Amino acid sequence: MKTKSQWDSAVDIYNEGMGEDGDALNNALIYPVIIKLLGDFKNKSILDSGCGSGYFSAKLTVKAKEVTGTDFSESFIKLCKHKYITVSNLSFERQDVTEKMQFKDGSFDFVVSNMVLQYVKDLHMFAGDSLF
Predict the structure, then answer these.
(1) By the 8 A CB rule, do 90 and 70 touch?
(2) Is 83 helix (H, G, I), strand (E, B) or coil?
């Protein structure tokens, strides 16, 4: 089974496990580190690439000017749009980190990709040649 179809079929299970605030691992270890790395992101635009069920994107909206969550799974994007319809500074769209994204250069102040890149076979599309 391909990764995309695995994620598409796991939307409900993943959403239930993460809930509105994420799981214990994310809350205790990952989220604090990302927040520290971001520094002051008040009034900044953030791209959450690989947003899954959207809980992390939603957390970022508390300080950020705007947050855009993307995921390669249309099922997750539909879930996010439904769950967070009332959050005015949060939007979601389908984008795949292995393909050229449809955003203009400089559209975001920060890009986060929480627990995503380990699933990507070729990081060149996501990061260009700067990492290699």
Answers:
(1) no
(2) helix
